[in-house]
Specification:
The structure holds 2 protein chains of 2 kinds.
Chain A: H1 3-20, H2 26-50, E1 59-67, E2 72-78, H3 82-99, H4 108-127, H5 131-140, H6 142-152, H7 157-186, H8 191-200, H9 207-224, H10 233-240, H11 243-268, H12 270-296, H13 301-320, H14 325-356, H15 367-370, H16 372-386, H17 392-407, H18 409-434, H19 440-445, H20 451-469, H21 475-491, H22 494-499, H23 503-513
Antiparallel strand pairs in A: 1-2
Helix pairs in contact in A: 1-2, 1-4, 2-3, 2-4, 3-4, 3-11, 3-14, 3-20, 4-5, 4-6, 4-11, 5-7, 6-7, 7-9, 7-10, 9-11, 10-11, 10-13, 11-13, 11-14, 11-21, 12-13, 12-18, 12-21, 13-14, 13-17, 13-18, 14-16, 14-17, 14-20, 14-21, 16-18, 17-18, 17-20, 21-23
Chain B: H1 7-11, H2 13-32, H3 37-60, E1 63-65, E2 70-72, H4 74-101, H5 106-124, H6 128-146, H7 153-184, H8 189-197, H9 204-221, H10 230-237, H11 240-265, H12 270-293, H13 298-318, H14 322-349, H15 365-368, H16 370-384, H17 390-404, H18 408-434, H19 439-443, H20 449-467, H21 470-482
The chains are: A mainly alpha, B mainly alpha.
Chain lengths: 514, 484
């Protein structure tokens, strides 16, 4: 039995069984979800152990015919990037189950069933090697998230859920059109086959064609990332979602967009990607600064974290479109970092909400005296989020900025403003929430971590430190993939590579990485 | 099956069974009176099941019948089985529905059977006169069915409107047939095709007018814009299971003759009718989806959505290819399951006198009736076009066929349309799961076995078409190539 198949299908099987759990015993649903998500995590931990890190190609491939005409395959495989993103999803799902243990009291069965279905969809998105299958998972992951926000969210949950669904749907229909178009041109949905055809020159798009296809894919991904100015669904969805929904949304779902750009847009449409890079980088930088500035003035904790995501994801996009080895490595690393640290931020904010029943920063103050351990954990997370050395985000941001500087130093200058701003809004928020004199409400309700909550927080903090101190555990596998992506993007535009002086860096770096 | 049946008789068996059993039911109601309502339902279910078996048997003896008036091929069999399946899915929720309205009569089932017989005839027709006869048998029964609750003002309005507009449409169609006969001297579709492709083809103006007139007639039957005005009123006024039937059965049969006529006889002059269908497809999708956004009555909303879905199928027709024909056939099958299923939930929820038809009445259904709302969710997600449902694959095949025929704009606009459509289907999902239970939901009775079947069967159909589309698609693809 293929390990990847186990990791993918366990949550699905868990979802189907969860539907059959009697409604009368919510505890059974909780334990079942915990057991399934833990088993999935354990199975996925074995992936990197057996993963051949020296190889750039996809591994653990499963390729089964699904539909004969048009030829669609159930084709999944993991490479050095999707491996870690799958692990991120499988790590966060059990933590989400833990964190929802008490806070979800109504329709418990459905909640945990949807959470497992969501895990299935997310893992599938990162593994699919067939464009059609990718689209299927892309849309399937939308449905459980829609219900998670809409049923268990806060006051404006319905508005947020519908907005989230429609934004994603509107973006993805054009991607579907592009996928069909590519199939009609090539008679295949297989991503490796397409990349192979492109690199051997058996398939070539005209520049106009390539640009339209690139945009069709890119818009779908950019909405998901979200890239400024397509981000307006995000603050609503994050603020209204239940804690587990916010965590999965921020930590994993947004990565579907950046993963898509890296995995599909760059290798398949390199010419258009390079042509659009300055524009996209501009939007990314705007997003970095805009997200940070808006986060600064938020009176609502969750909204602040949500806007900080807009800012952080801007770095990822910037790194991808720097077209340098370091930039791409940093972008991928930053995807993982953001998943860990923002997941932890949402998690602890959710715990604060459970205690104080408010998300307004003004309602807090002096939490550090009432709950010192909670304050410590939040401080570590905050410092990780603003990029303190030895914690994870520093590595990612540094690589992105360094990579960008190789090609476009002025981009780096502008993006670095975001780093400074992030320290401003995060530390200011920390000061207002945790320092000062504790009010009566805070004293009465805000208590420190319970064992269950410790269990949810500790893995994330451990990951922050590990990823900050020893990125070499993760980066080599990433580097193999990004080097290949870079090589792929240079194939169809040789004149460009030679014309730009900075591109020389790219080539040497690619050589080094290989 | 006795061996001495001639091939013509075998090929005509489904229609024969339906007509004979329908007549028998009429006699039976005279003998039994108002009693035995369950019996009528059971008998019509058995008839339809026998009809499906006969259609499959007839397919084993495929070929022309009655001197080329009927053409029993895979295409005909596909649509025969489809309309009879729609019939079964209509009868199942009708048990409880008719009992609640105190209208358990045999006439209901008789009319249904006759209407389906007409549609089977349409599916197999290879002659414009037979098409016309089938159309009339199907339509006249439907007009009566739409006004089945004769004391209800809306039902009366629905019936009258349907009858008047339907008659005009049929007349238009007949004018078209007359012109074709005048121009080519034949009403046989194969012969018309030969005449149009021949060296002494009649004047294109003449044919163009005939074609336009037939397009108007058929456009009405499939509720394509700009001939869609009747649909919302009729669907809203008609008894809900009948509305479900009207939105799937007659529509599928009308699409069958649409495909048969336009893809065989008129195939050679495709460039003439392509802009017409292109325009109608876009208009249907746009009008249907945008009007549905504004509806608060679920039946009306589903009516507008069915206009939009007719538009999607027209996109497949615009592609003018075998792939397009197969896509249209697949879509109609998926559409029949999801739409009839959704209407069945409305029929179940609407209560006595069909009082509860508004979106608000669905509030909290998810808490009180988890199975019903799970099934409705499947239908709605399929109507939206979420993967792993039949509706998604249907759309996928349609737009794939359209792109193959280089209809890039129609594809892009159609796909954007389907994103707009998501909004109004989501409204029902929102009501079901994200609001507190309403009065209507509190009053629902327990699911009867027949109703349970009426919900679960189409849901299974929708999922099977979504996960294993190959089974139906292969058959559709093979049948589409038989057309000529």
């Amino acid at each position: 039995m293929n390990l990847l198949l186990v990791v993918l299908l366990l949550p699905l099987a868990g979802f189907l069984v969860a539907l059959a759990v009697p409604r009368s015993s919510p505890a059974a649903s909780r334990y079942w979800a915990m057991a399934v998500s833990l088993a999935t995590f354990v199975a996925s931990v074995a992936l990197p152990l057996w993963f051949d890190r020296g190889a750039a190609h996809e591994q653990f491939t499963v390729d089964l015919p699904w539909i004969a005409s048009p030829e669609i395959h159930f084709h999944i495989a993991a490479d050095g990037v999707s491996l870690w993103l799958v692990l991120l999803s499988t790590l966060l799902t059990p933590l989400c189950v833990l964190i929802s243990w008490r806070s979800i009291q109504s329709r418990v069965k459905e909640f945990f069933a949807f959470l497992l279905l969501l895990e299935f969809g997310l893992v599938g998105v990162f593994l699919a090697q067939d464009l059609f299958l990718f689209y299927v998972f892309w849309e399937v992951s939308l449905v459980p998230m829609y219900f998670l926000i809409g049923i268990w969210g806060h006051e404006r949950r319905i508005y947020a859920a519908v907005k989230f669904f429609l934004y994603t749907m509107a973006g993805s229909v054009l991607m579907l059109a592009a996928i069909i178009y590519i199939y009609n041109r090539t008679q295949t949905f297989s991503y490796p086959a397409l990349v192979d055809m492109l690199s051997t020159g058996r398939l070539a798009f005209s520049p106009f064609e390539e640009m339209l296809l690139f945009l069709a894919f890119f818009v779908a991904f950019a909405i998901k990332v979200p890239l400024f100015p397509l981000h307006t669904w995000l603050p609503d969805a994050h603020v209204e979602a239940p804690t587990a929904g916010s965590i999965m949304l921020a930590s994993v779902m947004l990565k579907m967009g950046t993963y898509g750009i890296l995995h599909f847009c760059l290798p398949m449409f390199p010419g258009a990607a390079r042509l659009c890079a300055p524009w996209i980088a501009t939007l990314a930088i705007l997003g970095i600064v805009y997200g940070a500035r808006v986060a600064m003035v938020q009176p609502n904790l969750k909204k602040l974290v949500a806007y900080s995501s807009v800012s952080h994801l801007g770095f990822v996009v910037l790194g991808i479109f720097s077209f340098t080895q370091m930039g791409l490595d940093g972008a991928v690393y930053q995807m993982l970092n953001h998943g860990i640290s923002t997941g932890a931020l949402f998690l602890i904010v959710g715990l604060l909400y459970e205690r104080r029943h408010s998300l307004a920063i003004a309602d807090y103050g002096g939490v550090a005296t009432a709950a010192p351990w909670l304050a410590t954990a939040f401080l570590i997370t905050t410092l990780a989020s603003i990029g303190l050395p030895l914690l994870n985000n520093f590595v990612g941001e540094f690589l992105v900025l360094q990579g960008t500087a190789l090609g476009h130093f002025n981009w780096t200058v502008w993006a670095a403003i975001g780093v400074i701003l992030s320290a401003c809004y995060m530390l200011w928020m920390y000061q207002r929430v945790f320092y000062g004199v504790a009010g009566d409400e805070v004293k009465a309700h805000v208590i420190d971590f319970k064992p269950r909550e410790w269990a949810a927080v500790i893995p994330l903090i451990a990951m922050m430190v590990w990823m900050g101190v020893y990125p070499q555990s993760f980066l080599p596998a990433v580097g193999k993939v990004t080097a290949q992506v870079l090589e792929q993007t240079s194939i169809n535009v040789p004149f460009r590579v030679q014309a730009h002086p900075p591109a020389a860096h790219t080539q040497t770096e690619v050589a080094r990485a290989r | 099956m006795p061996a001495n049946l001639g091939p013509d008789t075998i090929r005509f068996l489904p229609e024969t069974i339906l007509a004979v059993m329908g007549t028998l039911l009429m006699v039976l109601t005279g003998l039994l009176g108002g009693h035995g309502s369950k019996l009528y339902g059971n008998l019509s279910l058995a008839t339809l099941a026998a009809g499906i078996a006969a259609a499959i048997y007839a397919n084993a003896h495929a070929g022309a019948a009655f001197g080329g008036m009927l053409m029993v091929d895979g295409f005909a069999t596909f649509f025969r089985v489809l309309v009879m399946t729609v019939g079964i899915l209509t009868v199942l929720p009708s048990y409880g529905f008719l009992a609640r309205q105190g209208a358990e009569t045999a006439e209901y089932h008789v009319l249904l059977l006759f209407s389906i017989a007409g549609q089977c005839l349409m599916a197999a027709a290879n002659d414009l006169i037979i098409v016309f006869i089938g159309l009339e048998i199907s339509s006249i029964s439907s007009y009566v069915l739409a006004g089945f609750f004769r004391d209800d003002k809306r039902a009366n309005e629905a019936s009258l409107k349907y009858f008047l507009l339907g008659s005009f449409a049929t007349a238009f169609f007949l004018y078209g047939v007359a012109l074709i006969y005048g121009a080519t001297g034949t009403v046989n579709l194969t012969a018309v095709r030969a005449a149009l492709m021949g060296t002494d083809a009649p004047s294109p103006v003449f044919i163009g007018v005939a074609l336009a007139l037939m397009f108007v007639g058929l456009g009405f039957k499939i509720s394509a814009a700009p001939f869609q005005i009747w649909a919302p009123d009729v669907y809203q006024g008609a008894p809900t299971p009948v509305a479900a039937f009207l939105s799937a059965g007659p529509k599928a049969a009308a699409f069958a003759i649409f495909l048969r006529i336009f893809m065989t006889s008129f195939e050679s002059i495709g460039s003439m009718w392509e802009p017409l269908v292109w325009f109608s497809a876009l208009l249907s999708m746009t009008i249907g989806n945008f009007a549905a956004l504004l509806q608060s009555n679920v039946k009306r909303m589903l009516a507008y959505s069915s206009i939009a879905h007719a538009g999607y199928v027209l996109v497949a027709l615009t592609a003018r290819s075998q792939v397009g024909t197969a896509a249209a056939m697949f879509y109609l099958a998926a559409y029949a399951f999801m739409n009839v299923g959704a209407f069945s939930v409305v029929a179940y929820l609407s209560g006595k006198g069909e009082r509860y038809q508004n979106i608000e009445d669905f509030a909290g259904l998810g808490q009180k009736q988890p199975l019903t709302s799970a099934m409705l969710s499947i239908f709605l997600l399929s109507l939206i076009g979420v993967p792993l449902t039949g509706g998604f694959f249907g759309k996928f095949y349609i737009f794939k066929a359209a792109l193959e025929s280089h209809l890039v704009w129609l594809t892009v606009l159609g796909l954007l349309n389907s994103a707009v459509a998501a909004y109004y289907y989501l409204r029902i999902l929102v009501m079901m799961y994200m609001h507190e239970p309403s009065e209507a939901v509190d009053k629902t009775e327990r699911l009867s076995p027949s109703l349970r079947a009426a919900l679960v069967l189409p849901a299974i159909g929708t999922l099977v078409l979504g996960i294993f589309p190959g089974w139906v698609l292969n058959f559709a693809g093979k049948s589409a190539s038989l057309l000529k």
